[in-house]
UniProtKB/TrEMBL annotation:
Residues 67-77 have a biased composition (Polar residues). It comes from Gossypium tomentosum. GO terms for cellular component: cytoplasm. Residues 103-113 have a biased composition (Basic and acidic residues). Residues 52-66 have a biased composition (Low complexity). Gene3D superfamilies: 1.20.1280.50, Ribonuclease Inhibitor. Residues 52-83, 103-127 are annotated as: Disordered. This is F-box domain-containing protein. InterPro entries: F-box-like_dom_sf, F-box_dom, F-box_LRR-repeat, LRR_dom_sf. Residues 135-171 form the F-box domain. SUPFAM superfamilies: F-box domain, RNI-like. Transmembrane segments: none annotated.
């Protein structure tokens, strides 16, 4: 077996590739991929040096400028000696490898060669820096940085150049979205986080249980973490307690956003942080204490379990939250224990910056609660009172107070609202863009309501005592409305919509809506959800949608004469050529989808 000699003479140096002189690797029997005269890759290369030229002449001023700058001035005097020849080849290979990188010194990809890296001394191998498998280093960086974590781990096993590039990508990563497998989750998380010292945003989908050990691993591996989101699958259990969560928040002084699911084992917590601005906690249950010492908190979302034996004192929680978090802008609370007293505690806090208020599933919230909200917060942009007991009178108060600010109104599962209240809201709120009135105009005799099928709690008893005509009609004309939800409104038999900006319409389980009493004048409509409707109604929806699309296409079938005197219908061959590609794409994008399944 042939082994490389410790000293390479000038007469035999042409039979070895330059890389062999650089790192003393075993000779490649398949031959060199580089030119023996100038050192450039052979593929697509025409050498400008004749065969009589000595290989050592590459280090002369005829080489590239970068080779000259790297070459030692004293090496010329040592050229006759074998070690000096090896030294010249080393500098030559490095100079040629970094030619393209050095010419892009002002480009954002400068850190590919390690000159701008926070971890110097980790330069890529010179043989693989310029080209790895024929791919420039900059292109390789752009391709690999778009891969998911699993693909990035697989790419590291391709070659040394790819492995070094993936290492740099891991070190430069600032955001990580990862699904944690059920087995070996702690070791897996530790190995991944060890690669990302600069991580600031992290989102984990847990398929295994979450405990304090996992939280401690995240806290130790990510000292600069700013945003963390933990979601759990149906089989995973979140075992983190309130004390452990409080210590984590207190230790992470850079943390600004915390979102966590499955918080049924907290028991109670005290969160103290001067940097936290967003907090989402779901599946809360029977909390003994809830203390928020977060002066910069701007958004909070608390979702409680829908169990009747929940003992959380929401009134005390709302009072303390209003006093300790004066900068709150968005509040979302979902609990069956919401009441008028909780609303009074929130309104007493006088949160001047509040813009979005969502109090969901509070059947004890009435028109008096709406009056309290309207008197304290007159600049709301979003109001969600789904599942409450407000009536058309409450809608009237909302329209009187928020005509110039409210753009999203959600009143689903409110059994005391009629179609008259919905029409009044759309007529009096000119900025309205989203409205959800699902399960409001319902048929009390309907046995297969969506609420029963999903297993949610029963509607309030006021549904059976509601006085209205069995079937109602709804007429809406609005210039800015974009999304309208009427899911489960089985009490509607006539619907007329004149909304030029409407792009999403939900008619799921509108079983009593007659096809001949349906009129959709919505040219921007993109999605119509019609599962659970009659076949005749689905056919009427598709017919009206196709008619509106045909009218939109027909406007391109006419052509004006050259003198601009009148419009005449152009032949099909001419009209098809006259339609611009952008207009053609616009028509295709505006095609409406009727979703049945």
């Amino acid at each position: 077996m042939h082994h490389p000699q410790p000293h390479i003479s000038s007469s035999t140096s042409t039979s070895f590739p330059a890389a062999a002189a650089f790192d003393f690797k075993l000779a490649k029997r398949r031959g060199s991929y580089n030119c023996g005269r100038c050192g450039l890759p052979k593929k697509g290369h025409v050498c400008h040096l004749d065969s009589s030229t000595n290989p050592t002449s590459i280090s002369t001023p005829t080489s590239s400028p970068s080779a000259v700058t790297v070459e030692n001035s004293s090496s010329a005097s040592r050229l006759p000696h074998a070690p000096a020849i090896r030294q010249s080849y080393t500098h030559l290979r490095r100079a040629l490898s970094f030619d393209d990188i050095e010419t892009r010194a002002d480009s954002p990809e400068r850190d590919l060669d390690g000159s701008n890296s926070p971890y110097p001394g980790t330069d890529l191998d010179p043989d693989n820096e310029m080209i790895s498998g024929g791919l420039p280093a900059g292109c390789l960086w752009e391709v690999l940085r778009r891969l998911p974590p699993a693909g990035l781990l697989a790419a590291a096993s391709v070659c040394k150049g790819w492995r070094e590039t993936t290492k740099r990508l891991w070190r430069a990563a600032e955001e990580l979205r990862l699904m944690v497998p059920p087995r070996g989750q702690l070791r897996f998380i530790g190995s991944v986080l060890k690669k990302c010292p600069s991580l600031v945003r992290m989102s984990l989908k847990m398929e295994s249980d979450v405990d304090a050990t996992m939280l401690a691993c995240i806290a130790f591996s990510c000292p600069n973490l700013e945003s963390m989101e933990i979601s759990t699958s149906n089989t995973a259990v979140n075992r983190i307690t309130g004390d452990e969560l409080g210590r984590f928040v207190a230790d992470k002084r850079c943390l600004t956003s915390l979102k966590m699911e499955g918080c049924s084992n907290l028991g109670g917590f005290v969160l103290s942080s001067s940097s936290l601005s967003t907090l989402w906690l779901s599946d809360l249950y029977s909390l003994s204490k809830m203390v928020f010492n977060c002066p910069n908190l701007k958004e909070i979302s608390l979702e409680f379990s829908r169990q009747e034996n929940d003992t959380t004192d929401l009134t005390t929680m709302a009072d303390g939250m209003g006093r300790s978090c004066p900068r709150l802008k968005n509040i979302h609370i979902a609990s069956v224990r919401l009441s008028h007293a909780v609303v009074l505690s929130l309104t007493a806090a006088n949160l001047r910056g509040l813009r979005m208020l969502s109090l969901v599933l509070g059947s004890e919230i009435t028109d008096a609660s709406v009056a309290a909200i309207a008197s304290s917060y007159s600049k709301l942009e979003l109001l969600d009172l789904s599942g409450s007991s407000i009536s058309d009178s409450g809608i009237g108060m909302i329209c009187n107070v928020f005509p110039n600010t409210l753009s999203r109104l959600l009143l689903a599962l409110c059994p005391n609202i009629t179609s008259s209240g919905i029409q009044f809201a759309t007529a009096q709120l000119p900025l309205l863009e989203l409205m959800d009135c699902g399960m409001t105009v319902c048929d009390p005799d309907s046995l297969n309501s969506p609420c029963d099928e999903s297993g949610d709690n029963e509607l309030p008893n006021a549904l059976n005592n509601k006085l209205y005509l069995m079937y109602q009609k709804l007429i809406i004309k609005h210039s800015r409305l974009k999304k309208l939800s009427l899911w489960g409104c089985s009490g509607l038999d006539a619907l007329c919509l004149n909304c030029p900006e409407l792009n999403d319409l939900n008619l799921i389980s509108c079983k009593n809506l007659h096809p001949e009493r349906l009129l959709l004048q919505c040219p921007s409509l993109q999605n119509v959800h019609a599962s659970g409707c009659q076949e005749s109604l689905i056919g009427a929806i598709k017919g009206q949608v196709s008619d509106s699309l045909a009218s939109l296409e027909n406007q391109y079938q006419c052509k004006r004469l050259a003198d601009g005197s009148k419009r005449v219908r152009a032949p099909d061959c001419l009209s098809q050529e006259a339609i611009d590609d952008k207009k053609r794409r616009k028509v295709v994008e505006q095609q409406c989808k009727v979703l049945v399944d």
